[in-house]
Automatic annotation (TrEMBL), chain A:
Localization per record: Mitochondrion
Organism: Hyaloscypha variabilis (strain UAMH 11265 / GT02V1 / F)
Record GO biological process: glutaminyl-tRNAGln biosynthesis via transamidation; mitochondrial translation
Catalysed reactions listed for this entry: L-glutamyl-tRNA(Gln) + L-glutamine + ATP + H2O = L-glutaminyl-tRNA(Gln) + L-glutamate + ADP + phosphate + H(+)
Enzyme class: ligase
A family per Pfam: GatB_N
NCBIfam families reported in the protein's UniProt record: gatB, PRK05477.1-2
Domain of life, source organism: Eukaryota
This protein's UniProt keywords: ATP-binding, Ligase, Mitochondrion, Nucleotide-binding, Protein biosynthesis
InterPro entries the UniProt entry points to: Asn/Gln-tRNA_amidoTrfase_suB/E, Asn/Gln-tRNA_Trfase_suB/E_cat, Asn/Gln_amidotransferase, Asn/Gln_tRNA_amidoTrase-B-like, GatB, GatB_Yqey_C_2, Gln-tRNA_amidoTrfase_suB_CS, Gln_synth/guanido_kin_cat_dom
Record-listed E.C. numbers: 6.3.5.-
Protein name in the entry: Glutamyl-tRNA(Gln) amidotransferase subunit B, mitochondrial
From TrEMBL, chain B:
GO cellular component: glutamyl-tRNA(Gln) amidotransferase complex; mitochondrion
Region (Disordered): 147-167
Coiled coil: none
GO terms of biological process kind: glutaminyl-tRNAGln biosynthesis via transamidation; mitochondrial translation; regulation of translational fidelity
Domain (Glutamyl-tRNA amidotransferase complex subunit Gta3) ranges: 65-120
Native source species: Hyaloscypha variabilis (strain UAMH 11265 / GT02V1 / F)
Record-linked InterPro entries: Asp/Glu-ADT_sf_sub_c (IPR036113), GatC (IPR003837), Gta3_dom (IPR049545)
Protein name per its UniProtKB record: Glutamyl-tRNA amidotransferase complex subunit Gta3 domain-containing protein
Highest taxon in the source lineage: Eukaryota
Amino acid sequence: MARIPPSVLRRYLFGGHLPTGGCLRPLRHCRPTAYSLSAKRYHGTQVSNTSAGPGFPETTIPFRKQLKDEAKKRKAEGTGKKSKQDNQKLDDWELTVGIEIHAQLNTARKLFSAAASSINDTPNTHVALFDVAMPGSQPTFQKETLIPALRAALALNCEIQKTSRFDRKHYFHWDQPAGYQITQYYEPFARDGYITLYAHDGIAAEDGEEVRIGIKQIQMEQDTAKTISQPGDIHLLDFNRVGLPLIEIITLPQIHHPSTAAALVRKVQILLNAVDACVLGMQSGGLRADVNVSVRRRDSTSSSTHSYGGIQGLGQRTEIKNLSSFKAVEDAIIAERDRQISVLESGGVIEGETRGWTIGSSETKRLRGKEGEVDYRYMPDPDLAPVVIGEDLIEHLRSTMGVLPDEEILGLTNEYGLTTKDAMSLVSLNEGGRVEYFMNVVDEYLLTSAEAEEDLKAVGRLIGNWVLHEMGGLTHDLADEENPLNMTPEGDCVIPAKQLAELVRFLSSEKITGRTAKKVLSQLFAAGLTGKEETAEGIIEREGLWFTPLSEAEYAQLATDVLGGNTKVVEEILAGKAGKINFLVGQVMRADQDGRVDATKARVVVVKLIEEQRRSAA
Amino acid sequence: MSGFICSRCRSSLCRVMRVQTRSITRSIHKDSSPPPRHNLVEIDDLLSRPSWSVRSLLPDPDVPPSEEITPAKLHHLLRLSALSPPKSPEEEAQMLKILHSQLHFVKDIQKVDTEDVEPLQRIRDETEEGIKDITIGMEQLKKAFEKEDVKGRNRRPRRRRGEDVDTKDVEDWDVLGAAGEKVELAGGKYFVVRSGKE
């Protein structure tokens, strides 16, 4: 290491300044480090020593301020990063994206062996002879794996092929003992489906209200073993996962915006969960997405000669693997699109390669180029008979799928009067338990109805607010952090539906005020957590919370007090500013601590008093 | 060939000769011109010249091997097949020679016209009954459907989880017995693979 001049050393040790250039650069261009910039320590035990050290060229400014100034400067110059919403569309270029989703099927056993499927069991305890390719072992197709696979295909509106076959995809890797993966390359079991995405699913604004993405095919295939990498190039293998059934969903290249791509992956996960086909999500590694990205110029298609799935005129595509979250999907597509455009605009050529993405990076990295391209040598697997699916099975599954998410949201918005946003929140909470609870409360509420017909939409909106927002905000020391209401997927929680319905009924029939209702709710919550049996009525009786409306005299008293305290405003009103009456009404309402003041009555009283004043003044 | 023919064979042979001569004489009498002697081919002549030889399946040793398999391609193929690369140029030349002769054989086989012939994948029972046998319908999956419940107002079927799966005779064997290298950690037993260069 070269000898460091003492002056440089002194600057660094006392002031934290690092020299930026070579020895010929003057020392006053030293680059200040973060240490030197945080002249003031906001918390800590050390005493700052900014006064020490000779020859400080500039006054040290707080680091936070410096960052803010830099951000402001960047914004003014316009070189900052574009927000995601603005980064969706480009004028000269059209982005085309196709997605391949691999999802683990929800089955009891593996695909070609009778070993049990597991998620996080003790390693290497659910392995059959065929799973580790023991010589002489044969595959036995487990028919039960067809049920979730068919449900997934039907949920994605595919045509089920009566006969489908298995093929071998050959490549060597330590996580695949047989040296080939059994998949369905030539004849998959489902083809030609589609998925409809709506604006509330989070598609790009440029895609409008709804967009339909076609699905080329869905095929069944095997999963590989789990690898735990350790330092020193050591890898530990757990073969529990090898041979588990996966479905691969291949979409047509009809996606043109990055957030639509992320929305598609999200919606597929929700759909597969709803039909019980795949219950593990992207977070737990049960759903993986690979993305194919290409760009082409909007005006001409002369240079875009590739085609896929019947769609012509596409540019050369690259594949991005290792995407582990919805955000990563969107970010990686944006980064790859920008990279491809910059390469093409500078006259380069896109190579058909495989690239990887790590969270937090700004560009995709090449994983495998043309020379590393694998020739999979697909061939029909001679050990396996074709899969012939009976028409009765398909019909049964189609008719017993239940209400799917889109229909559920539609029902909640059309019949129960909820907003789409509220409906989506409601169905996503507590694995469907919250929406069950909501409907139970509505039913109980309608039972106590005094009138013949109640407006279901108004009722739904009212109860929706209570179930979603009021109950969502309840906290207690004894409450579990993850699920404070102890809501089960069946819709049972610490506050019985009947009690909440009763409470809301009291509120809507004006027997209690809104503030009282919230108080009673938290008391019911506490009672439920501690195991006490309480009813809404019981609590209100006990605490004397029934709403007693204010008498005329009390109104008059309150109004007089308010008017007395705001003489200037009264003068303005008498002068002609009628709008200020609202201010006085608000003051009257606030005057009563218990919120018993009714706005319309208060207004009447205030107006009366003001007219009296006007008459007495005149 | 022995000169002795049993009486039964002799009589059948006589019968055949008689039919032959009768047909020849008949044809002679039918046409005015002498019949073209296609069917009575000179058998000895036919058998004296071979029309095909097994040697055609092997490349001509005098012709040098074609260059379509380059050494780069050979190495690529060896990598795909997880076979070790040649250790010397002589071994590489030998590999190329063998590969060339194998390709020659394959090209010869490919000369057969297989237009409109579906490749055979497996010899199976493709009768209607055979297909009905392997059809997977409600009957075959009855047991699996019994393990599901219908949940909620949405009437969505859900598989019951946490139930025991009978894996007798499937999972109870020494899985790590054939491991080249293994390790036992707190979590369990694992196979070990090393990926660094030796």
